[in-house]
Amino acid sequence: MTISCVEFCRALADDTRQRILQLLMDVDELSVSQIVAAFDVSQPTISHHLALLRQLDLVTSRKDGKQVYYALNRERVVACCGRLIARFDPSASRLPPEGDLLGEDTQRSHRQRRRAPDVRRNRPARERG
User: Which of the chain's termini has less CB crowding within 10 Å, N or C?
Assistant: First the structure.
């Protein structure tokens, strides 16, 4: 499935979805409850955002018992970013083919990525009202 630049931009237009993708950048995977812990929004809201990201194949999911784990589909995100850049920058046609967009430096092995960090320290302070 090819994702259009418009669909990709719509997915990134929401701050919560951007933050979910950022949260998943340096970990193998996180459970829904771990992702929810990093935000001041409800679990159904996070699940809605994860479903949209999954439909666009920007994240992958796997079920283990009752837990669902999500991981960033890095290759897909990088490819979409490359197509978006190419759309606005004529010199971007010199970019490597889609499969080569990830350099060796950014392709850390499965073992090198950190396991679920303490996502609570990234959690913004609740607004007092």
Answer: C
Residues 6+ apart with CB under 8 A from 10: none
Helix, strand, coil percent content, the chain, rounded in steps of 5 = 50, 10, 40
- DSSP E strands in the chain: the ranges are 30-31, 59-64, 67-72
Residue 114's DSSP bridge partners are: 27
CA-closest candidate to residue 56, choices 2, 20, 128, 106: 2
For residues 121 and 10, give the distance between their C-alpha atoms in angstroms, rounded to a whole number.
28
- Whole-model pTM: value is 0.70
CA nearest 72: which of 3, 4, 9, 22? 22
Model pLDDT for residues 11-64, shown as the tens digit of each residue: 999 999 999 999 999 899 999 999 999 999 999 999 999 999 999 999 999 999
CATH of domain 5-98: 1.10.10.10
